[in-house]
């Protein structure tokens, strides 16, 4: 029983951060609109791009030069998808990051798995959008944001939570069962 209590206590300490993560991300998965209402800020109106001061059309080569300035030393691949948000665009993929240029106006977006930053043609930041859904889903599935360990950490945590739960049930029931047996024994001794 002492070993079971020790095991249960240490498992509780080890899995507590993931229990909190799973609880919070589960709340998001069940109530996405409510949580995003708290987290998402305003935004910008892309309809204003066409009348933007200083907006000018870019060729695909000029868009590539812009992407190369933003991501120096990165190997860029031109994405075959030629539109973004309903606008003609040139999208350049690098490892873990993407630069998308609206060729009609020169506005551009820099995207990762979890964030998008929108820029005016002169480089001014118009909006920074965090993809909370992607963050919470990744945390819920993997236990952290990177895929370094795949799902191993989440799998180990899940197994630890099962052992934690089962040991908790045993620790809860054993004293009650013992008391019940003791009462039966005392009743049996009290009856002549």
Structure, described:
With 192 residues, the chain is an alpha+beta fold. It has a domain at 44-136. The protein is built from five helices and seven strands, in the order αααβββββββαα. Strands 1, 2, 3, 4, 5, 6 and 7 form a seven-stranded antiparallel beta sheet that branches. Strand 6 and strand 7 form a beta hairpin. The chain is elongated and about 105 Å long. The two termini are 35 Å apart. The model has no long low-confidence stretch (mean pLDDT 86).
Q: Estimate the global geometry from the Cα principal axes.
A: elongated
- State the total count of DSSP E strands: 7
Distance between the termini: 35 Å
Tell me roughly what share of residues is in helical segments: 40-55%
Overall pLDDT metric = 86
Strand content: 15-25%
Radius of gyration: 28 Å
Q: Work out the oligomeric state of the chains in this entry.
A: single chain
Q: Structural class of the helices, strands and pairings?
A: alpha+beta
Largest sheet: 7 strands, antiparallel
Unreliable stretches, pLDDT < 50, 5 or more residues? none
């Amino acid at each position: 029983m002492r070993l079971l209590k020790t095991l249960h206590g240490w498992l509780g300490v080890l899995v507590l951060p993931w229990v909190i993560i799973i609880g919070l991300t589960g709340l998001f998965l069940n109530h996405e609109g409510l949580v995003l209402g708290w987290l998402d800020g305003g935004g910008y109106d892309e309809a204003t791009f066409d009348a933007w001061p200083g907006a000018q059309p870019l060729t695909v080569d000029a868009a590539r030069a812009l992407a190369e300035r933003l991501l120096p030393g990165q190997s860029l691949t031109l994405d075959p998808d030629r539109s973004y948000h309903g606008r003609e665009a040139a999208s350049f993929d690098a490892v873990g990051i993407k630069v998308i240029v609206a060729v009609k106006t020169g506005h551009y977006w820099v995207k990762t798995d979890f964030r998008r930053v929108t820029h005016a043609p002169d480089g001014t930041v118009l909006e920074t959008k965090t993809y909370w859904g992607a963050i919470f889903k990744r945390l819920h599935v993997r236990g952290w944001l990177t895929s370094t360990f795949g799902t191993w950490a989440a799998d180990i945590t899940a197994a630890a939570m099962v052992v934690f739960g089962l040991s908790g049930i045993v620790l809860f029931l054993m004293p009650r069962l013992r008391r019940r047996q003791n009462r039966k024994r005392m009743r049996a001794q009290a009856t002549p």
